[in-house]
Write a structure and sequence with these properties.
Blueprint lengths: L1 H13 L18 E6 L4 H8 L7 H9 L8 E8 L2 H8 L7 H28 L4 E2 L10 E3 L2 E3 L4 H7 L3 E3 L5 E3 L5 E8 L18 H5 L4 H5 L5 E2 L2 E2 L1 H9 L1 H9 L27
Antiparallel strand pairs: 1-2, 2-8, 3-8, 4-5, 6-7, 9-10
Helix pairs in contact: 1-5, 4-5, 9-10
Protein name: Epoxyqueuosine reductase
Length: about 280
Amino acid sequence: MKELIREVITRSIVDHKGNWSDSLADRYFDEPLVNFAAGDDPIFEEFKQIIGPWHRTPKEAYEAMHGEGIWRGGTVVSWAMPWSKALRDSNRRCTDKPSIEWTKAYDLCAKVLQKEVRRGLLQEMERHGVQGVAPADAEWFRIMDAPDGKTSPWSDRHVAYAAGLGTFGLNSAFLSAKGMTIVLNSVVIDAVLAPDQHTAEHHRADCLHFKTGACGACIRRCPAQAVSTGGHDKVRCMIFGYGPDSVRLAKERGVEGPAGCALCQVGVPCEARNPAGCK
């Protein structure tokens, strides 16, 4: 079953008709990393203290779709979609705003690619008698205000950590074996599969800043000055990457929606690898 899941996710991304840029002469996203977390891992209860009581466990997410009391255990499937080298190159050359190619890639992800991959995987699971839910597509999912910025009832970054895909960087981005230039996704299914282990010493174990006290390259790359040795200012980051000016920039580029950013994830040691060598 795990190999089938990996195959379905990989095929859905790599072969997707939208996953191609003529200007880059390459895909936007390469083959994904796919890991699995036990649906009843205690870490999901811990997220209610780390993120907030509104964050749902896999059980809560599943039962919201299929009915209260029906959960008998299951698995969270988490995957990371790495940017292609060509896409990384395009954004690395930029310093004050993201590349046109990244804006188009972000738009593709937000509106089409992620949703179709999640839907396709759940449909394939149904053909094998497995039920599931994509929390990011559920009617209860929404972006909410929190004291330190925006939050949601399902964090793909924290789910990826639970699945052993990596850790967090100084800029709050997720640092996987393929680096930070990734897009994360997840679904919950009611098949109980062998989980991957989250073995990092702590949630920032792979970030060079926390590992050595040095680096901080993401600080220098942030055009909004939203990253410092004190951490990541989510409010400042959101305004720059997704606020009115970003929406106007996207419209100038023929895209309805924010232009995104992610400049702090390129031109850094962790752009496309884990520099701490933990994986």
